[in-house]
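Thread: Newbie trying to understand structure tokens

Hi all, I'm a second-year student working on a class project, and my supervisor (Dr. K.) asked me to get a predicted structure for one chain before our next meeting. I've only ever worked with sequences, so writing a 3D structure as a token string is new to me. If someone could post the tokens and maybe explain what I'm looking at, I'd be very grateful. Here's the chain:
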Amino acid sequence: LFHQANIIITTMMAASITVVLLLSLQLLHPTNSFSTITMTSSPSPPLALNLKCKVKPTHRTKFLTAIQANQQSTRLNEPNNLQFVIGQDTEEENTFYFHEEFVNCEAFQEHMQTEHFKVYNAFVDDEEPFEEPPVICLYNLREESDDVVTKKRGVYKESFGLNVNLYPKASVRDDFLKVISDNKQGTDTVEELALQYTYGESTTIDGISEGSANTFHFHEQYKGKDHGKEGFDVHASMPHFAAWEEFVQTDPFEKDPEVFFFKIIED
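---
Reply by user tm_fold:
Sure, no problem. This is what the structure looks like when written as tokens:
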């Protein structure tokens, strides 16, 4: 997913992003109400999380050690975790992005009760590694097959990722969803270098977050030369992407899109 270069440049150069869902450090502190949430229904649909954090340069090494330990334990020991990706911003070496997926919200709650999650929380409490509170977006996956949302996704080294926040006007919601659906279908079925095109709408979870209507979040991954950037460039040349660009020309957004590019970190 992409949009006109002038929007992208403006977005990437911005000093800060609009907070879509700011939970302060609730996700990182199990002692508050976040760890004792009540589900609204069961079972809930597959849940995804995008997170952006800025780490103090003095804490970079310790942070990476702590979060990668959490990542590996989550992958190995939580059967209901589908994905846990960590990426480093292409421009700012101490800005990082996560993308996580769980089979449902209950699995996410279970994740927060694990020992490895608590160890990571203790690190955050003790070391205070962040320059500012992380920005967290929670959303339910759309248009994913049962096969995708019932088994763990592959782990890819040397891949290129992006997390995106889009805010279509209510009046163009149906048109927006149609062009996004076509873009996803084309990416998933035609592009050999595309690894993932995931999206969903901001969701409400009791005790955690209040979703925002017509707020959509995305996670994409590509492979190829230049740490996967080749795959993204191919994506930007496809007909289904051209249709997306045409839609962007119609002034469809309540506020500017936010696009964050990163290189996936895998040992």
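A couple of things are worth pointing out once you decode it. The first strand starts at residue 47 and ends at 54. The beta strands are 47-54, 81-89, 95-102, 135-141, 160-166, 194-202, 216-222, 258-264. Feel free to ask follow-ups in this thread.
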